[in-house]
């Protein structure tokens, strides 16, 4: 994983603020919904978050009393995460790379989350390496939650909506079938649902769900942010009603792949 571009980006970008915004709350609340579902019925579950960022999920879960291990690559993010802790939370924080979790034992966690690393892995080999590491440290029958950034919203909003078509064509950043081509300097790897499915076939897992974590929200951020509380809650109800509809998944900016590791069922 390329460090310099990510370090520069996360030292400047307010990721915490993004998830706290009203439109960001859709992604956050949806992800938390499926985290809670994945933990349901497990007494005293152990949780690992790989690429924990500033701790929006890890710290929240630890403050709820869950046992959490948080691994984060970027020192700046790790500093912000640790600043939120008062020492009473059952959380261990570590600096580490999603591509090499050799410092963690096999089959140790009931729930393993990669809610950011797949955004920044640009080769299939690296993607499979990160996923394989996540599967390795998860207990048989445990859940792995993997977040992705999707291709089509970028084509619609950035390439056409912000009039970057000629620029990206000149830079050869699009395939003939309109798949974005990313490098580390571009910061984000963009995928389609078939790309995710293809990765899953190479892992000892079963997919339980593929969820649109923000759906149409980011196409209409200004409208979402301007909603009153009642209207926003109605939007959330609508979003939850459709976020598992597979005909809509590819249009979401972010998706959550919910996997179960092969082995005994919980």
Overall number of structural domains: 1
Q: Just name the CATH architecture.
A: 3-Layer(aba) Sandwich
Q: Which fold does the CATH topology refer to?
A: Rossmann fold
Instruction: Tell me the major beta sheet.
Output: 8 strands, mixed
> Count of helical segments?
11
Strand content: 15-25%
Please tell me the overall pLDDT. 93
Return residue spans where pLDDT drops below 50 for at least 5 consecutive residues. none
Total E-strand runs: 8
How large is the radius of gyration? 18 Å
CATH superfamily: Vaccinia Virus protein VP39
CATH class: Alpha Beta
How is this structure best described in words?
The chain has 266 residues and is an alpha/beta fold. It has one domain: 3-Layer(aba) Sandwich (Rossmann fold), CATH 3.40.50.150. It contains 11 helices and 8 strands. Strands 1, 2, 3, 4, 5, 6, 7 and 8 form an 8-stranded mixed beta sheet that branches. The mean pLDDT is 93.
Layout of helices and strands, plus pairs?
Elements: H1 3-12, H2 15-20, H3 22-39, E1 46-50, H4 58-63, E2 67-72, H5 75-83, E3 91-95, E4 109-114, H6 124-136, E5 138-150, H7 151-161, H8 165-170, E6 190-191, H9 193-200, E7 205-212, H10 221-226, H11 229-242, E8 254-261
Parallel strand pairs: 1-2, 1-4, 2-3, 4-5, 5-6
Antiparallel strand pairs: 5-8, 7-8
